[in-house]
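Bench notes, afternoon.
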Amino acid sequence: MRVTIKDVGRAAGVSAATVSNVLNSPDVVAPDTRERVTAVIAQLGYEPSRAARALQQQRTFSIGYEIPGVTDGFALDVFLHRMVERAGKADLDIVLFAPRPGQTQVDAYREMIRRGAVDGFVISGTGRNDDRITYLLDVTFPFVTFGRTDFPDEHPWVDVDGRAGVRQAVAHLVETGHHDIALIGWPEGSITGDERAAGYHLGLKDAGIAARDELTVRAENGVAPGTEAMEQLLRLDKPPTAVVAVQDALALGAMSAIRDAGLEVGGDVAVVGFDDIPSAAFSAPPLSSIRQPMESVGVLVIEMLVECLDKAADASRRSGTLVPELIVRASTNPAMQSDR
């Protein structure tokens, strides 16, 4: 039979109300009583009813996460698994949701709050002028973002240092003898994309290489845009001998264009991607890529949100930036081709 709060009270010689205070307001209980009740709880293996706690504390013990419309399925899978694992350790559930037809993103968040469905949100896919962020700040509802926003000092966030990652990639290309290094980036205005582009320029500056405007091509996500961007670069009078793409799909598209031009990826033109998706290791040749620590991101966003929900000191101002890792493969080091 399940141990109840009354069982604990009888064994400890106190009322059920005192046991409840030990669990929820320990400061109001005398130290010796608190220790005795705590020992009995451990001895009997008592676990408080979540429904009772939710009612008493006016919490749902659930965290909302909006599934992004367009994702890297692998990165999302790792991110979600780590969030669920870490949330479970805090006795929290993850509630997935998405805007219904006709709803805006803000409408979906507003409905979740109105229904009392969650205690807070984890938000990814952030960008400039993100209406979700301004709305949640206005209504003072707890949330943590994966990615920076226009208000980095007003809420907790976790991000991967894309600037450092791309800077590391450029340094690697310079070390392998390249000076005409191109960037296939996203359209200007994306916080993440602009950070990665800044890393490219810093990497060139570190090496004393003057940036050439024509070596930066902006494109949307995807293999086809990457192919078109690389074709544009290869038509230059002085084409690049290496390229950094801000996403692996763009890099894979660039590799296709290089092969179609009768050139060798890694030998004639080196390519580095970003994200290290599973197919990167199995492309032809295997793609060097900047790997994001998605497992750590998934854990950190939950830990930060738990701090917010527990009203920990300064939790609302906590942030964390994680450094990615460059995984070198044959697309920048042809000598590694035999190791595939």
